[in-house]
Amino acid sequence: MRNLDITALRSFVAVSEAGGVTRAAGFLNLTQSAVSMQIKRLEEMLGLKLLDRSGRGVTLTPSGQQLVIYARRIVDLNDEIHAKLTRQDWEGEITLGVPHDIIYPVIPNVIKRMQRDYPKIKLHLVSSFTYDLKAKFARGAIDVILTTEPEPDKGGDELLELPLRWYGAPGGQTWATQPLRVAFCNHCAFRGGVTEKLDAAGLDWELAATSDSDRAIEVAVSADQAVTAVLEGHEPAQYEEVPENSGLPELGMQKIILYASGERRQIVEPLLTFLRSEFGALQSNAADVAAQ
């Protein structure tokens, strides 16, 4: 039989995006043993080893890396067909809140998928700072929010963990000056922790630019007037990572956290699925790049 099992392919894609069977099982609302059994059945059918379990976590074998490209397309097409034929009556409005600095590259893809599969669900995007989004979510003004935090609060679901990095202008030299000139938005969640690390490292620094607007900070940094801290993979195109031998302190890790309201779960759930899928794919791509 040459018919691929879409349920098994969905589990395989989830494992590749989540980086492990346990997290994938949580996303799929299945038991760990059920997901493992589906992967085993897929491997037996193809006569190929798809996952390498020899190290820490789970990684894709060369055959698995090849399959996951097709598997995502098959699962997406399956979901698109199902949505077009059965979900036209799903309608309503959802508000999604996202911090400015993590809108790209994931959120445009999520919005496109929602428009394609659930055209009668209106998705409103609110962009603000983590503390502001959490306050609005707490009083019910936003249905779903993403935040950037060291650890999730109660009810938060960790989607991705990324290093916080130093960035400056391409070819810039501000990172080598003393005192170090830094730029942050007034309400940046990273600002306090970063300046504490500079103080702990005994480095002189000064606030060269501050604003309520991310655009103003981007101008200062891209003009080589200051450096700033950004999550790896979410830096603006006009930024360049500061050299590793800069002498600036390591900034540690930050997590992208998902919080969802318990109201109107029928129309909220597709959004959550797409957010988990897209951030899972981002994590998978980052792991592939790091392995090369």
Please, could you describe this protein's structure?
By secondary structure, this protein is α/β, with parallel strands linked by helices. It folds into 3 domains: 6-86, Orthogonal Bundle (Arc Repressor Mutant, subunit A), CATH 1.10.10; 92-158 and 255-291, 3-Layer(aba) Sandwich (D-Maltodextrin-Binding Protein, domain 2); 163-254, D-Maltodextrin-Binding Protein, domain 2 (3-Layer(aba) Sandwich), CATH 3.40.190.10. 44% of the residues lie in helices and 22% in strands. It has helices at residues 6-18, 21-28, 32-46, 62-86, 106-117, 130-138, 191-200, 214-222, 265-291; strands at 51-52, 59-60, 92-99, 121-128, 144-149, 157-168, 180-185, 205-211, 228-231, 240-241, 253-260. The strands form 3 sheets. Strands 3, 4, 5, 6, 9, 10 and 11 form a 7-stranded mixed sheet that branches. Strands 1-2 form a two-stranded antiparallel ribbon. A two-stranded parallel ribbon has the order 7-8. The longest helix is centred in the C-terminal third of the chain and has 27 residues, at 265-291. The two termini are 35 Å apart.
